[in-house]
Amino acid sequence: MKNGDKPKKVKAGGLLQQLALVPETLFKGAFLQQYGAVCFRYVGNGDQIEILLITSRESRRWIIPKGWPIKKKKPFETAATEAFEEAGVEGRVRKKPIGRYTYLKELEADAVSPCVVDLFQIEVKALADDFKERGERVLAWVSPDEAARRVRELELKSLLVSFRPHGSSAKWKMRI
Predict the structure, then answer these.
(1) Sign of CA dihedral 49, 55, 60, 62
(2) pLDDT at residue 101 above 80?
(3) What is the rounded CA–CA span in Å between residue 141 and residue 158?
(4) Looking at residue 2, what DSSP letter applies?
(5) Which of 17, 42, 71, 166 is 20 to 30 A (C-alpha) from 91?
């Protein structure tokens, strides 16, 4: 890229496809780390699930709750905190990650950086009426197939379409 040129805007697609549009991001350092929550609830006779999606505050596209590491909190605690602040989620978070995905995070109007998001499942027991970002996002309960259709990131699509809750209760921690 020549001095004064602006980086290309990054659109949907796989991480490698996106990086091909802005190769200079590979030389800026390591991938940034985030923690996300796949929030779900049982529906019907308890044999089906719905996944909670939220809209991003600026672009209004469908995403899952996620955020940057929080000092003195473990990754699963950070995922639970983000789910509560962004969607009012109260429930049980699994301590062990269920997967991860990568995407390009737009940090500023002209800068993007590759991010890795480790995912933790949260069985939603309730949604709080009052939470930090209430009114700033739209929330939607959808099937795993519909969740995969709505999100933009290919690796996240794959994880959501095949998502099935797993893990014994010993590996869960109640949200406080």
Answers:
(1) negative
(2) yes
(3) 18
(4) -
(5) 71
